[in-house]
């Protein structure tokens, strides 16, 4: 029998995989995708908890989060394009223009 | 061990495997494909939780629009599989941190939540669209309007950020930031001399 705990454990693990991707990968686009992974994990937790409490508030929150994730992905990719035009690479470790 | 449990297990393993493959792949295109697979697995989990409308929206928006945007950008920038993982001490700190996050979340969230997922609350005609609509346009009306403003700002921001700006961009790319200042100063000096 699948319990709420299973869903939350899965959500937590997916979130941790996203955190790993953000911290360890050097490609800016893969970092953005890891952020999407984390948002997806949060969506799963929201829907599971909403179902557990018998309300649809969780699903409404997921719709809002989805919209925010879409806007953030668009802006993030625009920044990636601008940085790539400037530096010819997407390595976050080598993007040190702002370094004092 | 009924069908629901088997479906959950399959979808969960698929989601986890696809997520690991996203951060493990050498090529960013493979990462996008695996992320799409992860979103499909999450949509199946949404279906199991009775959120049919949300599952459809997830596939339409996330897998169908955002990932296509990622693919467009990867294609336009013509990225190759040239980048490696970090090898520094910071990277191993990252592994440890992710492990700590995973342990903390899984331990705290799953420990006390042993109740089974309850039955669907009330009649749900088309995957909960009616209930979601009633909530979205009454209780969360401000959030709804705020997200529309957010999307508008995002569109403007994306257009402004990705716009070409002319010779200054090419000059910077050739000589870095420091040398970009010198030609600009020389230009203003020339203009000042012309005026005199």
Write the layout of secondary structure elements.
The complex is a heterodimer of chains A (100) and B (196).
Chain A: H1 4-24, H2 28-52, H3 57-87
Chain B: H1 3-24, H2 28-48, H3 52-77, H4 89-111, H5 129-139, H6 141-161, H7 167-195
Helix pairs in contact in B: 1-2, 2-3, 5-6
Polypeptide structure, described:
The complex is a heterodimer of chains A (100) and B (196). With 100 residues, chain A is mostly helical. Chain A has helices spanning 4-24, 28-52, 57-87. Chain A contains 3 helices and no strands. Chain A is elongated. Chain B has 196 residues and is mainly alpha-helical. Chain B has helices at 3-24, 28-48, 52-77, 89-111, 129-139, 141-161, 167-195. The longest helix of chain B is centred in the C-terminal third of the chain and has 29 residues, at 167-195.
Strand content of chain B: under 5%
Head-to-tail CA distance between termini of chain B? 89 Å
Q: Which series of helices and strands of chain A comes N to C?
A: HHH
Percent range of helical residues of chain A: over 70%
Rg result of chain A: 17 Å
Secondary-structure-based class of chain A equals mainly alpha
Question: Pairing-aware structural class of the strands and helices of chain B?
Answer: mainly alpha
> What is the CA–CA distance across the termini of chain A?
56 Å
Mind summarizing the main beta sheet of chain A?
none
């Amino acid at each position: 029998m699948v319990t709420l705990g299973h869903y939350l454990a899965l959500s937590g693990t997916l979130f941790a995989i996203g955190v790993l991707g953000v911290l360890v990968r050097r490609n800016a686009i893969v970092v953005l995708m890891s952020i999407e992974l984390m948002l997806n994990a949060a969506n799963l937790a929201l829907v599971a908890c909403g179902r557990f409490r018998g309300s649809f508030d969780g699903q409404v929150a997921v719709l809002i989060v989805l919209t925010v994730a879409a806007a953030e992905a668009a802006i993030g990719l625009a920044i990636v394009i601008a940085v790539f035009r400037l530096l010819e690479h997407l390595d976050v470790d080598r993007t040190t223009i702002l370094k004092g | 061990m009924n069908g629901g449990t088997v479906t959950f297990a399959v979808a969960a393993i698929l989601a986890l495997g696809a997520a690991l493959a996203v951060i493990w792949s050498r090529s960013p295109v493979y990462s996008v494909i695996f992320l799409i697979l992860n979103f499909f697995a999450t949509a199946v989990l949404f279906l199991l939780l009775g959120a049919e409308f949300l599952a459809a929206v997830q596939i339409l928006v996330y897998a169908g629009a955002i990932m296509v945007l990622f693919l467009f950008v990867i294609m336009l920038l013509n990225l190759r599989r040239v980048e490696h993982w970090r090898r520094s001490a910071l990277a191993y700190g990252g592994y440890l941190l992710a492990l700590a996050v995973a342990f903390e979340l899984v331990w705290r969230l799953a420990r006390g939540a042993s109740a089974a997922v309850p039955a669907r609350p009330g009649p749900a005609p088309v995957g909960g669209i009616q209930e979601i609509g009633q909530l979205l346009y009454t209780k969360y009306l401000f959030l709804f309007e705020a997200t529309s403003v957010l999307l508008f700002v995002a569109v403007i921001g994306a257009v402004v950020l990705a716009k070409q700006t002319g010779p200054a961009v090419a000059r910077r790319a050739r000589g870095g930031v420091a040398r970009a200042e010198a030609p600009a100063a020389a230009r203003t000096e020339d203009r000042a001399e012309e005026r005199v």
